[in-house]
Design a protein that fits this description.
The protein contains 10 helices and 2 strands; from the N terminus they run ααααααββαααα. It has a two-stranded antiparallel sheet. With 293 residues, the chain is mainly alpha-helical. α3 runs parallel beside α5, α6 packs parallel to α9 and α7 packs antiparallel against α9. β1 and β2 form a beta hairpin.
């Protein structure tokens, strides 16, 4: 009897997941105005319009208006909507599992039947399938608000499962590991930020007019600061502020970010000393190519 009920609850959980997916997709469509039948989203969520359920789930409202190049057109908006749909799906699954926990704790189910455990196993397996498809079709190129919202949403879902004792066994198709899932993308983002800042530094260094080009710098009361240094410090601050939420949530990313910042600052130091005539140009150029550790 218990095994039969577990099987039935597993089938029901799969249908509930599909209904939640549809509801979250509709909520995102209403919030963002994204086309419901865009080619990318149709491939990612092929059955999103086959169910009748319509619910409302709160989504993050600070997503970037544009996170892709303007010439990407509708595809960029479709990708953003995919991230928001998955973020909302994480919240919806936690709400559903909380309801299952209440039903289980009421004692109406037979002994040996753990409804939230059965539901969580199905939800995790199906959600990971959708997440992998999104990451394959719509790789987030930068640490945009939408991509970070998705990362934190998956992290919160994993934390909820761990708190409730519903985590699927490691190594199974349903095992969720948010940090490991997004690690390659964060590494790519940090490497891209470092490369962009190094290119900017090299370009600014090339605009110098000789060893005394620093004279036009900003007066601070402690001497003159090179315009290159002022601009690069501003660029570094703006660029790596984008990672603040990621590092606050997963402090383990901080050393990677610190290594990239140090590499850029070493290049800036070399460029400034070269402009001031304190270092030969060839040495400064080699300093700019110093890889991050």
């Amino acid at each position: 009897m218990a095994l039969w009920m577990i099987d039935c609850f597993g089938v029901a959980a799969a249908r509930r997941f599909e209904a939640l997916s549809i509801a979250c997709d509709r909520a995102v469509t209403e919030c963002t105005g994204a086309s419901q039948q865009g080619p990318v989203r149709t491939a990612l969520f092929p059955s999103m319009d086959n169910g009748p359920l319509r619910q409302s789930h709160t989504l993050s409202q600070d997503v970037d208006a544009v996170i892709y190049e303007p010439d990407m057109g509708q595809s960029g908006q479709d990708f953003l909507a995919c991230y928001s749909q998955l973020e909302g799906l994480c919240q919806a699954m936690m709400s559903e599992l909380a309801s299952d926990r209440s039903l289980h704790d009421s004692g109406v189910l037979p002994e040996g039947v753990c409804l939230p455990q059965t539901t969580a196993a199905q939800y995790c397996k199906l959600f990971l399938g959708k997440l992998r498809r999104v990451m394959e079709w719509a790789r987030p190129p930068t640490p945009s608000s939408a991509a970070i919202n998705l990362m934190i949403g998956v992290g919160n879902f994993q934390a909820y499962l761990e708190w409730e004792g519903l985590t699927p066994p490691p190594g199974t198709p349903a095992a969720i590991h948010a940090y490991g899932t997004f690690l390659p993308y964060v590494q790519q983002w940090i490497d891209g930020s470092q490369a962009k800042l190094l290119q900017t530094c090299q370009a600014l260094e090339g605009k110098g007019v000789g060893p005394m080009s620093y004279v036009g710098g900003e007066e601070t009361g402690h001497g003159i600061i090179s315009p290159l240094l002022v601009e690069m410090l501003h660029n570094v601050q703006i660029e790596f502020q984008r990672y603040e939420r990621i590092v606050n949530y997963w402090p383990v990313y901080a050393p990677r970010q610190e290594a990239a910042i140090c590499t850029v600052l070493r290049a800036v130091t070399a460029a400034v000393t070269c402009q001031c005539g304190l270092m030969p140009a060839r040495n400064a150029a080699s300093f700019n190519r110093c890889p991050a550790r």
